[in-house]
Design a protein that fits this description.
Elements (H helix, E strand, L loop, with lengths): L12 H31 L21 H11 L3 H7 L3 H35 L8 H23 L11 H26 L8 H26 L30 H4 L1 H28 L4 H26 L4 H24 L5 H4 L5
Helix pairs in contact: 1-4, 1-6, 1-11, 4-5, 5-6, 6-7, 6-11, 7-9, 7-11, 9-10, 10-11
Length: 360
């Protein structure tokens, strides 16, 4: 049975709710930064610069010239160096190393920011018993995310590979987004942000728009993994056609939406267009119910960010996905997902126990 706010002990309930909610919102923000850092790491080709899985030792950066040379020698053994970066020297290696090191360090900091407050809040009785299993599960999911990240990185060490597997990249992205949404939803539930429930049909439209957005994000992961944003840099046509030649070249057919660069980019275009239309329609339908407070702001942000993200996506495509624009595109995508999650949460029906709670 899921928890609700009345599970918080009566003594200091409001204070405990605020403490737990602020902590969870802080973790959500840290995961958001992690997703953006991950995108920047991929776009700059930095993700394969650290070839060791050292959860504790790896938190300390190289402190001597000998250590730098040792790590650089390891990097020179993988295909990416031979095929892409051969001859760029120790200075070039340091440039890509630092971004990946910061990315991994940030992941470690998230772990500490989760575990230490969890123990403290649990010990002082600030976390309701029915919320504890969810938080433990989220902590485990965060730990698994680190393992999935290393599983992804290892795919870049394979012969003739200069990047990680698109499948593993998408798995890593999905894990991160699931963790982010779960933390955000839990924080909103703990804080008990009250919205104004909207009629069934508009809320179903909102849910469908968020689901379509999630699918578009996954498709965007394949675009990123296959570097599909660097080809067919015209819009709205691809090579002068609405449906490009070569869409179904791979056999069996199911491989095309996952492995065919042409199909992957086309599918992302179509899904992005449908998502933008669905989100704007859902926002308009939500405003018909005359929302107030947080729900009004969330609906406006959801619809507005959808338009911004669509235009940013087109701009990124036309510019052949430079790292700065592509990173911004990924960041705004997560902001759009955030607005969708907040909107859905604000339009939910209150649990029966919560409806009977007269406290503000």
């Amino acid at each position: 049975m899921p928890f609700d706010v009345r599970d918080f002990p009566a003594a200091g309930a409001a204070r405990n709710r605020r403490l737990v909610a602020v902590w969870l919102f802080g973790l959500s923000a840290m995961v958001f930064v992690m997703v953006v850092l991950g995108g920047a790491t991929r776009l700059t080709g930095s993700g394969l610069s650290i070839m060791e899985w050292a959860p504790f030792k790896g938190a300390i950066p190289p402190l001597s010239e000998a250590e730098w040379q040792r790590l650089f020698a390891l990097y020179r053994q993988i295909p990416q160096y031979e095929l892409l970066h051969q001859g760029f020297g120790l200075a070039g290696f340091k440039h890509i190393f630092w971004l990946e090191w910061v990315h991994r360090l940030w992941g470690r900091l998230i772990g500490f920011a989760f575990l230490i407050p969890l123990i403290w809040l649990w010990a002082r009785g600030a976390i309701p018993p029915r919320l504890r299993p969810r938080l433990v599960l989220l902590f485990v999911l965060g730990g698994l995310q680190g393992a999935v990240g290393w599983f992804m990185v290892r795919s870049g060490f394979l012969p003739d590979s200069i990047a990680v597997s698109a499948y593993r990249l998408v798995a890593h992205l999905v894990f991160a987004l699931v963790l982010y949404v779960a933390l955000l939803w839990t924080a909103l539930s703990v804080l008990r942000v009250r919205g104004r429930p909207v009629p069934g049909a508009p809320r179903r439209l909102l849910a469908a728009a968020v689901a379509l957005l999630a699918l578009t994000l996954v498709a965007g992961g394949f675009v990123a993994g296959l570097h599909a944003g660097r080809v067919y840099n015209t819009f709205p046509l691809m090579d002068g056609r609405l449906v490009p030649r070569g869409y179904g070249d791979l056999s069996p057919l199911w491989r095309n939406p996952l492995e065919n660069v042409i199909a992957v980019q086309f599918d992302h275009r179509v899904l992005a267009t449908l998502t933008a239309l669905a989100v704007v329609a859902a926002a308009v339908a939500g405003f018909v119910a005359r929302p107030r407070g947080l729900l009004r702001v969330a609906l406006a942000a959801f619809g507005g960010l959808a338009v911004v993200q669509y235009l940013l996506g087109v701009t990124t495509l036309l510019a052949a996905a430079p790292p700065g624009l592509a990173t911004l595109h990924q960041a705004v995508a997560v902001l759009l997902l955030t607005a969708g999650v907040v909107t859905l949460h604000a339009t939910r029906a209150a649990p029966a126990r919560e409806e009977q709670d007269p406290s503000p």
